[in-house]
Amino acid sequence: MTAARLNIAVVEDHADLCELFTDFLIGEGYAAEGMACADDLDDFLQAHDVDLLVLDLNLPGEDGFSIAKRLRESHPGMHIVMITARTALEDRIHGYSSGADVYLTKPVAPAELGAAVGSIARRVHESRSRQVFMLLDPLRLQISGPAGEIGLTPPEICLLKNLAEAPNRKLDYWRLYELLDLEPDDKSKAMLEVRISRMKKKLHEAGAPEPAIKSVWKTGYQLCVPVRIQA
Questions:
Q1: What's the rounded Cα separation, in Å, for the pair 208 and 224?
Q2: The model's pTM
Q3: Which of helix, strand or coil describes residue 133?
């Protein structure tokens, strides 16, 4: 039984190896999905949360180093296990500097991958057990957390409530514009960015860890801290 149920994306262009790793991880109790390239991964991330990425380096199109560096910026909470035939010291250093938590060199037995993933799962479980919950009170126009209570404006209440209730706490740009009664143009996008920035600041002041809200690449925004809504 896994220490924490992780959502895992396996990015490996060798079809048999991708299937082997994916099936093994599913058998270990994780939710795992295999894919062959960066484009497939980006499409998957638009609709799913991923806790851990098992990433080959030699891929068609964008390589693993570039993917890791990009996702480390856009998904700072995601863990990355790199798997590669590159054994040189400079490659291993490049892997870790690009964002890898673990760097495994091929051939990699499924059991070795399972041990690396299990180690990360235990850390995720410990982090989740210490997770901070925020309390949103729409009537009193405030958010409460470990650091105290912070007042919110009605539009902020509306955005936070809808983010908290959305699947994966994620909303697309069009829905955010709709909630704020904005037209989908560059001016509205700038206004939304300012609004989100202010909300993040208030959440942090109330005790939410960073990032309280993160940008989802080309899609919208995601609330990263659990928010309970006062009835």
A1: 9
A2: 0.62
A3: coil
pLDDT of residue 4: 60
Question: What distance in Å separates the CA atoms of residue 122 and residue 128, rounded to the nearest whole number?
Answer: 10
Q: How far is CA 195 from CA 168, 176, 184, in A?
A: 21, 11, 15
Residues of the domain holding 115: 7-129
Query: Considering its fold, how many domains does the chain have in total?
Result: 2
Instruction: Name 83's bridge partners.
Output: 56, 104
pLDDT tens, 24-63?
Answer: 999 999 999 999 999 999 999 888 888 899 999 999 999 9
Q: CA–CA separation, 70 vs 98, rounded Å?
A: 9
Does any domain span residue 44?
A: yes
Nearest-angstrom CA–CA distance, 53 and 117: 10
Q: Which residue has the tokens 């484009």?
A: 39
Place of tokens 């919950």: 133
